[in-house]
Design a protein that fits this description.
heterodimer; A: 201 residues; Nonspecific Lipid-transfer Protein, Chain A; 5-stranded mixed sheet; 7 helices; B: alpha/beta; Rossmann fold; 7-stranded mixed sheet; two-stranded antiparallel sheet; 9 helices; 23% strand; globular; binds S-adenosylmethionine
Chain lengths: 201, 251
């Protein structure tokens, strides 16, 4: 039965996505602009390629390797950097990310997901009532704040520890300095390579 | 292999006059139409949904395309296609049986799918569509019931656009002996009883089990599709070959 597990998962994910989108009143109109477009996404480490089709009220999911409007291939490691637009050109140049087709469509899909803001509170309120939902929502945001706070102080602590006490990790200024030196070295190397080529010819 | 030259044909394990098979099959599906979806989930433990999603993936359907869901019955595949082809595309749900079409139409309407679906009562052997009309044709668990399969495949080939593809999802031959035995026990001992219990109709499910055994196996169906003119015909065994998905192109 494992053979059909991908179909099972995409079926479930599609259902969940449809429900999430239905909870965001603003999503419908934003979908309209996207409707009829297809984006494919594949992680280099896996055989499956996920195809997203924007429909009039949801995003349908499929798995195949055939023609779409825009196809992205990325490795797991480059995935985190993919969210940073400044990194993108670098990732494409180094072939860590490959994009075929209309890159604007990829951006439109990405925008759609980033702006997705399901109104889960009024949905939950139908089951719990308004009062309880409000309390729950308050509790959740306090919890989120607490986690963020703890995270920040933990991060600060580790940074200080690594930089000052153990001197394991470099200060940002040192990093910039190092980066400049590396680029200079890189440029020199390229000039050398060019000269070498000239001599060979 | 071909039953076009004989005057008799199979109806499950029975041999019947060719002219009678159509109405016998019709009786089966008139009788099961109302309970068809429940029985499908029950008999296959819900796995028929995954077989259909696999078929959908193999179609690589694109927005704007024209799809024929032949012997489409209660329209599971039609629903999946309708969302994907969008307002610029079209799905034709064709079935020989008015009761199945009616159940399908109600179900799809309840799901809010109305804009791009057309319902046509038609026999797969003589499709009432112009040549080169469809980008994709699917026939799921339908070919088995068709009297003259060669004529049906030829008719599908005719209405498919050049570059289009046919997908045949059908019960087939399990690949391992053990699975075969378990499957036999299930379909001849349990299936008719479940049919009796849930749909009040053991005969139709006895027919189902028999018609599955009489259906051409993987290689035979591949050859039949090639003879009808399809190119690059290949198949995937699903769930150990209990079901196979055949794909062929028209070039
Ligand atoms: C088992 S159902 C499959 C329904 C649907 N495709 C599914 O997978 O759930 C088989 C369908 O084939 C239809 N059928 C049988 N013989 C046919 C023929 N000669 N032409 C068109 N449809 C036919 C029946 O009416 C029935 O609805």
């Amino acid at each position: 039965m494992l053979q059909l597990a991908p179909q099972w998962l995409t079926g479930l994910a599609e259902k969940a996505l449809t429900e999430i989108i239905a909870l965001d009143p603003a999503a419908q109109s934003r979908l309209q602009r996207l409707s009829g477009r297809q984006l494919a996404f594949q992680l280099t480490e896996f055989d499956w390629r996920l195809v997203l089709t924007a429909t009039k009220d949801s995003i349908a999911l499929n798995l195949h390797q055939e023609a779409v409007d825009c196809a992205i291939r990325a490795s797991l490691s480059s995935l985190r950097q993919l969210r940073d637009p400044n990194q993108l050109t670098h990732l494409i140049k180094t072939d860590a990310v490959q994009i075929d087709g209309d890159i604007q469509i990829a951006q439109q899909f990405s925008n759609f997901f980033q702006q997705l803001n399901p109104d889960w509170q009024s949905h939950v309120a139908r089951y719990l009532g308004d009062g309880l939902t409000h309390k729950l929502s308050l509790l959740l945001s306090q919890l989120a704040m607490l986690i963020r706070h703890k995270q920040q102080s933990l991060q600060q602590l580790t940074t200080e520890l690594l930089q000052d006490e153990l001197q394991l990790s470099p200060h940002p200024v040192e990093v910039t300095q190092f980066c400049t030196e590396v680029s200079q070295l890189h440029a020199r190397l390229e000039r050398l390579q060019q000269q070498l080529k000239l001599w060979q010819e | 292999m071909s039953d076009s030259n004989s005057k008799t044909t199979h109806f499950g394990y029975k041999t019947v006059a060719e002219d009678d098979k159509v109405s016998l099959v019709a009786n089966v599906f008139h009788s099961v139409a109302a309970k068809y979806d429940v029985m499908n989930d029950l008999m296959s433990f819900g796995i028929h949904r995954l077989w259909k999603r696999f078929t959908l993936d193999c179609s690589a359907v694109r927005p704007g395309q024209k799809v024929l869901d032949l012997a489409g019955g209660t329209g599971d595949l039609t629903a999946l296609f309708s969302k994907r082809v969008g307002p610029g595309g079209k799905v034709v749900l064709a079935d020989i049986n008015a009761s199945m079409l009616a159940v399908g139409r109600d179900k799809l309407r309840d799901q809010g799918l109305v804009d791009n679906i057309e319902y046509v009562q038609a026999n797969a052997e003589a499709l009432p569509f112009a040549d080169n009309s469809f980008d994709i044709i699917t026939i799921a668990f339908g070919l088995r019931n068709v009297t003259n399969k060669d004529a049906a495949l030829a008719s599908m080939f005719r209405v498919l656009k050049p570059g289009g593809r046919l997908l045949v999802l059908e019960f087939s031959k399990p690949q391992s002996e053990l699975l075969n035995k378990a499957y036999d026990f299930y379909s001849f001992n349990l299936l008719p009883k479940m049919g009796q219990l849930v749909a009040g109709d053991a005969d139709s499910y006895q027919y189902l089990a028999e018609s599955i055994r009489m259906h051409p196996d993987q290689q035979t169906l591949q050859q039949m599709m090639e003879q009808a003119g399809f190119a690059e015909v290949s198949y995937h065994n699903l769930t150990g070959g209990i079901v196979a998905l055949h794909r062929g192109y028209k070039f």
